[in-house]
Design a protein that fits this description.
This protein is about 85% helix and about 0% strand. By secondary structure, the protein is mainly α. The longest helix has about 30 residues. It starts with 6 loop residues before the first helix and ends with a helix.
């Protein structure tokens, strides 16, 4: 016997949907950023006949990540436009009922 509970789970997933989309985009973008930084680091080290060291890679990539986060407009857009659009959506759906 299987008991399916769609109500509360579906409602919570829908309610926190913006969070899950943002989290997914964040994880994808940060993973790709570090992956391509690794390829770039290895290529640069090979061009200069230098050893590949994880500590140098980590420091360089972490620094670059922090510099990017200081000026990223997408982060600001998700923080400002996203919640406003959710509030407007909720206002109009409540009025429509």
């Amino acid at each position: 016997m299987t008991i399916l509970c769609y109500g509360p789970v579906k409602t919570k997933l829908k309610y926190y949907g913006f969070f899950w989309v943002t989290l997914g985009l964040f994880i994808t973008s940060i993973s790709l950023h570090w992956l391509f930084a690794w390829y770039s680091y290895v290529q640069e080290q090979n061009e200069h006949n230098q050893p590949i060291e994880l500590n140098d890679y980590f420091n360089e990539t972490f620094r670059d990540t922090m510099e990017n986060w200081q000026s990223e407009f997408l982060q600001l857009m998700w923080q400002v436009v996203g919640p406003i659009s959710v509030m407007v959506y909720r206002i109009f759906t409540v009025k429509g009922k």
